[in-house]
């Protein structure tokens, strides 16, 4: 058999898929486009490229080299975007630190990742001061301050302040070529059990994820389309799965970018209005807070496209977004998947004024983006039927070139994650004949009652449509007769009232039409002041169950 391997001309350039390659297009076609940070800073893509060089020279001068880990503790900012590029482009590893974790958890992640340098916003210096003496590998600290300076007031030996250090550094830096499989980023999952797990991604993985998501969003004829005329603002923390990877996509396309700093509904709405933001992404709780904010009352949201992820998009929230002119739609993934696996698209035959059908289509988990191999399987890893029927539900397992190859320094958990050669999501779902996925529940959250499986997500979506309901979460509680029963935890809208019978009658309507099992009709509800959330705004059902059953 002859060797079919492509012959390489000696002078040919072997083009590695490195993060630095994402900058070629915007520098060629959008060098003067704006990047905005709050009301405090405006720069161009040309400035971005220069500042990336200054950052690399600064870090290099502090001893950072290939394989070293640079940790970032900041709100969403232009500086974070610079670190998204500059740190991995040096061959170093960017650790995005979840600043909403406890000091003990942050200490664990910094030590576990073996961080060498920590960049920290002045707001988090008191937190860092608590753990500073227990850091095992950190050699240097850099202060980030919108006000500039102020290092003397902190009891941490800062090497300097970010802006001052960059001002002293050259913008010229020769970013080297290296193996595209080099680790670029590390961050830690925010699970509800055990210690945080470190996930990591290579340059190749991040580049391919960027290209696939850009292709999917760019191929949309209208709804959900991201293009060069858009104005992008993340409303997902940049420490959480690279803000779902969209800053890389936005930079590749050379669109105007707006970074809002710390999230506050009123200021987010202000930036949407004043900067003419047209594309964002967030978890349902953030969208809910924005739509119910007094500042949103007179704002025109038409033309604003928003991916909802992190948790399922309830139908009630989708309907509220549609009513305000928002192109709202669901996306799906997880920390281990870089993360985007699927995005919703509304079929062309659905009329724009058909609000009911629009809401139904927009809350579906969605269609795989390019290069995603997705299956639903039974306990023996055999495919379940692709008919979209509840009886065909199975665990969602995936292959795609941007999945984490394991958990950092945790081979046992890594093997469990990749059992059978597919990454196990821990989610239950069905796939229909058209290839559209619908997640029905987390494996740990699905409710077995009366011999039937009841989807907590579907029941939440149904209850969210009741006019008096502000937020809802459904958990399963033990029952001597039925095994488990669903318990809705409901936050009512201000000034509104509802009873158990009101909720039962509402769910009964959907049961009568066959949309949900009669076993989903709750025997009891709890009306609560608020719902427990994780550090990234997801519903924390583990905490809810602990509050209810002790």
What does it look like?
- By secondary structure, this protein is an alpha/beta fold.
- The chain folds into three domains: 34-196, Rossmann fold, CATH 3.40.50; 203-368 and 397-422, ANL, N-terminal domain (Rossmann fold, 3-Layer(aba) Sandwich); 447-549, GMP Synthetase, Chain A, domain 3.
- 29% of the residues lie in helices and 22% in strands.
- Strand 12, helix 10 and strand 13 (305-308) form a beta-alpha-beta unit.
- Helix 2 (45-61) crosses helix 3, helix 7 packs across helix 8 (246-253) and helix 11 packs across helix 12 (355-362).
- The N and C termini lie far apart (68 Å).
- The mean pLDDT is 94.
In summary, what is this structure?
This protein is an alpha/beta fold and 550 residues long.
Descriptive tags:
single chain; 550 residues; alpha/beta; Rossmann fold; GMP Synthetase, Chain A, domain 3; 3 domains; 7-stranded mixed beta sheet; 5-stranded mixed beta sheet; 29% helix
Indicate the low-confidence ranges by residue numbers. none
Structural class: alpha/beta
| Total domain modules | 3
> Which class of the largest domain in CATH terms?
Alpha Beta
CA-based shape = globular
> Quick one: CATH superfamily of the largest domain?
ANL, N-terminal domain
**Sheet having the most strands:** 7 strands, mixed
Number of strands: 25
Reconstruct the topology from this structure.
Layout: H1 24-29, E1 34-37, E2 41-44, H2 45-61, E3 69-73, H3 78-89, E4 93-96, H4 103-113, E5 117-121, H5 125-131, E6 140-144, E7 160-161, H6 162-168, E8 183-188, E9 198-202, H7 203-218, E10 231-232, H8 246-253, E11 256-259, H9 265-274, E12 279-282, H10 284-291, E13 305-308, H11 315-323, E14 327-333, E15 340-343, H12 355-362, E16 367-368, E17 373-377, E18 394-399, H13 411-417, E19 423-431, E20 437-442, E21 447-449, E22 452-454, H14 456-464, E23 469-479, E24 483-492, H15 500-512, E25 526-527, H16 541-549
Parallel strand pairs: 1-11, 3-4, 3-5, 4-8, 5-6, 6-7, 10-11, 12-13, 13-14, 24-25
Antiparallel strand pairs: 1-2, 8-9, 14-15, 15-16, 17-18, 18-19, 19-20, 21-22, 23-24
Helix pairs in contact: 2-3, 2-6, 4-5, 7-8, 11-12
């Amino acid at each position: 058999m002859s060797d079919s391997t492509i012959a390489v001309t000696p002078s040919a350039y072997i083009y590695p898929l490195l993060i630095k390659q994402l900058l070629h297009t915007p520098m060629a076609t959008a060098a003067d486009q704006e990047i905005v940070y709050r009301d405090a800073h405006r720069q161009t893509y040309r400035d971005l490229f220069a500042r990336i060089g200054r950052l690399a020279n600064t870090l290099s001068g502090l001893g950072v080299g290939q394989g070293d880990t640079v940790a970032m503790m900041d709100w969403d900012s232009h500086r974070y975007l610079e670190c998204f590029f500059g740190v991995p482009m040096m061959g170093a590893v960017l650790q995005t630190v979840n600043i909403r974790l406890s000091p003990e958890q942050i200490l664990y992640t910094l030590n576990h990742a073996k961080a060498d340098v920590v960049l920290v916003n002045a707001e988090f210096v008191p937190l860092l001061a608590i753990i500073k003496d227990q850091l095992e590998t950190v050699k240097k600290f850099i202060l980030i301050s919108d006000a500039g300076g102020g290092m003397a007031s902190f009891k941490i030996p800062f090497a300097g302040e970010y802006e001052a250090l960059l001002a002293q550094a050259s913008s010229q830096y020769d970013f080297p070529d290296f193996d595209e499989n080099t680790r670029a980023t590390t961050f830690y999952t925010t699970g509800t059990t055990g210690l945080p797990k470190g996930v990591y991604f290579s340059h190749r993985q991040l580049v391919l994820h960027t290209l696939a998501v850009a292709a999917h969003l760019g191929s949309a004829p209208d709804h959900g389309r991201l293009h060069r005329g858009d104005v992008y603002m993340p409303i997902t923390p940049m420490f959480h799965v690279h803000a779902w990877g969209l800053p890389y996509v936005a930079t590749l396309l050379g669109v105007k970018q707006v970074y809002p700093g710390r999230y506050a509904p009123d200021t987010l709405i202000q930036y949407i209005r004043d900067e003419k933001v047209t594309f964002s992404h967030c978890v349902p709780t953030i969208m809910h807070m924005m739509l119910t904010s007094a500042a949103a009352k007179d704002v025109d949201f038409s033309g604003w496209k928003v991916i909802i992820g992190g948790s399922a998009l309830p139908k009630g929230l989708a309907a509220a977004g549609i009513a305000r002119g928002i192109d709202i739609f669901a996306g799906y993934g997880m920390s281990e998947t870089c993360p985007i696996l699927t995005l919703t698209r509304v079929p062309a035959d659905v009329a724009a004024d058909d609000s009911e059908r629009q809401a139904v289509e927009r809350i579906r988990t969605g269609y795989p983006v390019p290069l995603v191999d997705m299956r639903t399987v039974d306990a023996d890893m055999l495919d379940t039927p692709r008919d979209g029927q509840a009886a065909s539900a199975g665990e969602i397992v995936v292959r795609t070139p941007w999945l984490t190859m394991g958990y950092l320094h945790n081979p046992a958990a890594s093997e469990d994650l990749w059992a059978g050669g597919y990454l196990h999501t821990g989610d239950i779902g069905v796939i229909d004949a058209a290839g559209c996925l619908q997640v029905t529940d987390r494996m740990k959250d699905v409710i077995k009652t009366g011999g039937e499986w009841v989807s907590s997500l579907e029941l939440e979506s149904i209850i969210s449509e009741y006019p008096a309901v502000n937020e809802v979460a459904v958990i399963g509680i033990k029952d001597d007769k039925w095994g488990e029963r669903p318990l809705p935890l409901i936050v009512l809208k201000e000034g509104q009232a509802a009873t158990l019978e009101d909720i039962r009658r509402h769910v009964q309507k959907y049961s009568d039409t066959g949309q949900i099992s009669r076993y989903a009709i709750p025997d009891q509800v709890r009306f609560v002041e608020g719902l427990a959330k994780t550090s990234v705004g997801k519903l924390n059902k583990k905490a809810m169950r602990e509050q209810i059953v002790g």
